[in-house]
Write a structure and sequence with these properties.
Strand order of the largest sheet: 3-6-9-1-10
Strand content: 15-25%
Helix content: 40-55%
Number of strands: 13
Distance between the termini: 36 Å
Length: about 325
């Protein structure tokens, strides 16, 4: 593959900034007062990842997922996860056709560019696991036949972290496949007041028109892949992930998949800032969102209310930066 020239890279970044600005502005018409949350959603999309939106009810988790989906003219499917949902509802099923006397595959809801999974922890572990192959390998295997998923492919799942009745906590293998986790948080008083004015009439979500399409998103992903990462920054990513495995407050550190996804997300963040190279600042800014949901604290840390987010923040502050870099 030929190396891209500086002018080609610059043109690609210009397209990235223009398209990302349109998508972000579209989503922020619905999600008010949460620019960092919207930006992280774009980072995950361009990093070819998946997003877990975790927060209390009523703060706009599903609204964010639907707004992002409607901003891109591509195939979108929504899965309402319930205790009676079956794995075949997600992946698809082979049905016997009496006329042709052959089995015909009926694709499930996972066959879309953007899959919105609402309340994912309300489905049984058996049904949750139906997403594992799709999220990691971009394919689905049913009855011994493998079906490829069209790019881009992104799962945006929501869940309520505090209500335990009738829910099944996501297993570590499932959480590890989500590139990042984001919490919406409550809006500010001004943003909530504006929301009452804006959403008191017709639903703002219904007025959203696509500002990009699947082909355009694929091109933007190619631009992000070309963002340069120096050997020093790669070493910094590995050192940060390794530090989570050695932290005494954690009984399970981040996986090698976490290193890869942190690097990809850092590339996307750099591209959204108009740079064709990654800085340690990009890694530091994403470390909490990308790593914390993969970590399991020890019993002592839980008693001391030492959260994985706090552990990651402490590791970032202690870990030496690559030579010649300044700490944020």
């Amino acid at each position: 593959m030929a190396r891209r020239t500086r002018s080609e890279a610059g043109a690609g970044l210009d397209d990235l900034l223009e398209s990302a600005s349109l998508i972000r502005g579209n989503v922020e018409r619905v999600i008010e007062g949460k620019p960092e949350v919207v930006r992280l959603s774009l980072v995950v999309l361009l990093a070819e990842g998946h997003l877990l939106i975790e927060d209390v009810p009523g703060v706009g988790k599903t609204m964010l997922a639907k707004a992002l989906a409607r901003s891109i003219d591509c195939s979108v499917k929504r899965i309402q996860f319930t205790p009676d949902l079956l794995p075949s509802d997600v992946t698809g099923v082979s049905v016997y056709d009496l006329q042709t006397r052959e089995f015909e595959f009926k694709p499930g809801a996972v066959f879309a560019n953007l899959v919105v999974g609402d309340e994912i922890n309300r489905a049984s572990p058996k049904t949750q696991s139906a997403l594992l192959e799709a999220m990691e390998e971009r394919q689905v295997t049913v009855d011994g036949t493998t079906y490829e998923l069209e790019a881009p492919f992104m799962v945006i799942a929501t869940q309520n972290p505090i209500e335990m009745e009738g829910t099944y906590p996501l297993p570590e293998a499932q959480r590890d496949r989500f590139t990042a986790r984001v919490s919406m948080g409550y809006p500010s008083a001004d943003a909530e007041l504006e929301m009452l004015d804006t959403h008191g009439g017709p639903a703002a979500l219904d007025d959203l028109e696509p500002v990009a399409d699947a082909l355009q998103v694929r091109k933007l992903i190619d631009v992000v892949r070309a963002v340069h990462v120096s050997d020093e920054v790669k070493r910094y990513v590995v050192d940060l992930v390794t530090a989570t495995r050695q932290a005494p407050e954690l009984r399970l550190g981040a996986s090698p998949r976490a290193s890869l996804q942190l690097l990809r997300a850092s590339r996307a963040a750099a591209g959204l800032d108009g740079r064709d190279y990654v800085l340690p600042d990009d890694v530091q800014g994403l470390a909490g969102s990308v790593l914390a949901h993969r970590l399991l604290p020890t019993a002592e840390a839980q008693v001391a209310r030492r959260t994985p987010e706090a552990v990651v923040e402490a590791l970032v502050s202690r870990l030496p930066l690559p030579t010649g870099q300044k700490r944020r």
